[in-house]
UniProtKB/TrEMBL annotation:
Family matches, as CDD domains: cupin_YML079wp
InterPro entries named among the record's database cross-references: Cupin_DUF985, RmlC-like_jellyroll, RmlC_Cupin_sf, YML079W-like
Protein name: Cupin
Species annotation: Vagococcus acidifermentans
Pfam families for the chain: Cupin_5
PANTHER family referenced in this protein's UniProt entry, alphabetically: DUF985 DOMAIN-CONTAINING PROTEIN, RMLC-LIKE JELLY ROLL FOLD PROTEIN
Domain DUF985 residues, every copy: 7-140
SUPFAM superfamilies, alphabetized: RmlC-like cupins (SSF51182)
Length: 167
């Protein structure tokens, strides 16, 4: 397979994502779920998501679990700051001997961001249940995260926006 991220961006018709990287929604369940606050959401949604070394996924938080599935490219590190403030990582990739996994879960209410540390790109899919809704999506600035955990300053400066982008 190709090692060119442009091939995948063009072939899959991916668009820039507000958190970084490129995406395209590929599934939205026709079944719905009513949230505790009365909103109706799809039972699940799924996207293709491509990150490059230069274009990581910035720190953000969802109110639902997100499952990640590795497809193509280089290993991807998902950095998680759990609600208790602890930091954890998971490496998505094809090499089990190096501790990489083909799928992983980011628990609801976990602040997380992802990056390709070695190589050019990673092509993954992400599935959210109940389905993704921008109303449940929270991006973070460096200042916000440094106030929560200054020990992660180098990582926060790499994976959090200095100023949030316009949507």
């Amino acid at each position: 397979m190709t090692t060119d991220p442009t091939y995948w961006i063009d072939t899959l018709q991916l668009e820039p994502h507000p958190e970084g990287g490129y995406y395209k929604e590929i599934y939205q369940s026709p079944q719905t779920h009513e949230t505790a606050d009365g909103r109706v959401r799809p039972l699940a949604t799924s996207i293709y998501f491509l990150l490059t070394k230069e274009n990581p996924s910035r720190f953000h938080r969802l109110t639902a679990d997100e499952l990640w599935y590795f497809h193509q490219g280089d290993a991807l590190t998902v950095h998680m700051i759990y609600p208790d403030g602890c930091h954890g990582t998971v490496r998505l990739g094809p090499d089990a001997a190096k501790g990489e996994v083909l799928q992983a879960v980011v628990p609801a209410q976990t602040i997380f961001g992802s990056c390709v540390e070695n190589g050019q790109f990673a092509l993954v899919s992400c599935m959210v249940s109940p389905g993704f809704d921008y109303a449940d999506f929270e991006l973070f600035t460096q200042k916000q995260l440094l106030a929560l955990n200054s020990e992660l300053a180098p990582l926060i400066k790499r994976l959090a926006y200095d100023k949030l982008p316009e949507r």
